[in-house]
Amino acid sequence: MTEPTPAAPLWLPNQRFKAIAVGSPKAGKTGACAAFANAGYRVIVAAFDPGYTILLNLVDPAARGNLIVLPFEDRRGFQGPDSKITVGQIGDPVAFGKFAQFLNDGKARTCREQGGEIVDLGPSESWGTDTVLVVDNLSSVSQAAFARLLKMQGLDRQRRRRKDWGFAADEVDDVLIQMASSYYAYHLIVLAHWYVQGPREWEDPDKSDPSKTEYNNELREAEKDLIPTKQVPISIGRTLSRNLCRHFPTVIWAEVDASDRRVFNLTPSAVRDSGVPVRPGRLPAILPIETGLLSIFEAVTGKEP
Description:
- This protein is an alpha/beta fold.
- The protein contains 9 helices and 14 strands.
- The chain has helices spanning 29-32, 34-39, 53-58, 95-105, 138-152, 162-180, 210-223, 237-243, 289-300, and strands spanning 18-23, 42-47, 67-71, 76-79, 85-89, 107-109, 118-120, 131-136, 187-192, 194-197, 230-233, 250-256, 262-265, 286-288.
- The protein has an 8-stranded mixed beta sheet with strand order 3-2-8-9-1-12-13-14.
- The longest helix has 19 residues, at 162-180.
């Protein structure tokens, strides 16, 4: 499982592909990654969401050895200590920490459909340009990082503080910076959902310090005409969500068009960050979801049409 099934011929670029693909749930982001496995690349999926089963169905039978799905999940349960039906964390939140450790040593457990066995893929700095790491998805990675940070500080969601969001955002940002650094050769695709972010909302009154609330709301009044409303990837907090696209030279959006087709839309827009670093005319503005991500990869990394 550690070596991809050979393709004839498998084109290996001499530069990295670093992309974030943003879209609504069920827009086709995860399924789009099957094209890489079918083309012969080794596809490692760090699955923080359960939607990876679509990949098991879309990868050709002859190419299934190219796909390695590694779930990173925190265990949750429905039975509380008072015997009432509840939903909560069972044990410590470990998904984010296990993912970081996996990047260091390459050891993780495959999904149940692939045997549920621990594999050793080697540290991520040893992966070459035949390997694509897919992080599915950033929104769930951020939730896992936040749960881990609260546990480390002995807090729960009811007692979280504003600064806790910042600490967790820093951890997620640090992991993205590391994965996107030039130290690595493997290709990186991060999937994310989106939401609409505009000027900050007014704060509720602070009974202990009313002047603080008044001052903060004065700032929001001054900001409201300066901060545009945009579509941004969902991560932790406003600042990281609005700025994390800076880590990725390629930022693309998956959507369902007016004809109910799942597509990648490369058209520039003032309401969302997007861009594909290729010469004008190299790619059409709209690409089919099934093959579009692979086409973008080949264009960005220099494969001739």
